[in-house]
């Protein structure tokens, strides 16, 4: 049986990753195997060995207990590469399920990085929706502002690091923070970004689920500008679908990839179900 490896910066297996990959891989004959950079470590060991440190980007992930943990990127790189090397022997592809950048990870087996997939997806949408420089200039001439990309990130201090990967798009960026692993104000973050002109909102962490996207959309639909068309991209939708499509398992829906619109009517039954799953993440 063919296999796809999924590596998280926290501990595996993750129930949310299982749910995210299942619709695209179940029944295909391709098994999904998970590994985590913090596998085998206790919470006390993680605090000692992987805690945030000066000179390193800080990421947030999830333990098997369901608790969230902040970790230093530089502290997990060796563990991540070791898992890549292990899975390369048995897997047809490997997915790094973190939206941070990991260009230092290498393998002869194809590697998929969510940060690149997200940027490519937004770039594609900018083209197809004609949010080009000419369109932005026309808006500005009409007294409006250029379209802004809204980014919801887990921690307030992550803005600078996250901005680096988005700057190639050449569009104004707006940030709001709300952790996917704690009881946080996803709704308020989405409304803040919409008020700052965002017409695309990316939930920029692999921990955000379709339930979080549904919460953001409900707030936007009930907000001060309910008719605005605002796309909400969630990597747990986009990444498995894109990887499966690239492996020839499912057709790629270039207009989907996790997008939702605030201007649409009611939430679907699936989205309502996802919203009830939020407390279980």
How many DSSP-defined strands?
10
Overall CATH class of the largest domain: Alpha Beta
Radius of gyration, rounded? 19 Å
Number of helices: 10
Characterization of this structure:
It is a single chain. Helices cover 39% and strands 18% of the residues. The protein contains 10 helices and 10 strands. It has helices spanning 15-25, 43-49, 73-88, 114-128, 133-141, 159-166, 186-195, 210-221, 235-246, 269-277; strands spanning 2-8, 30-36, 58-62, 68-72, 93-96, 111-112, 148-153, 173-177, 198-203, 231-233. The strands form 3 sheets. It has a 4-stranded parallel beta sheet with strand order 2-1-5-6, with helices on both faces. The protein is globular and about 50 Å long. Residues 138-144 and 252-281 have low confidence and may be disordered.
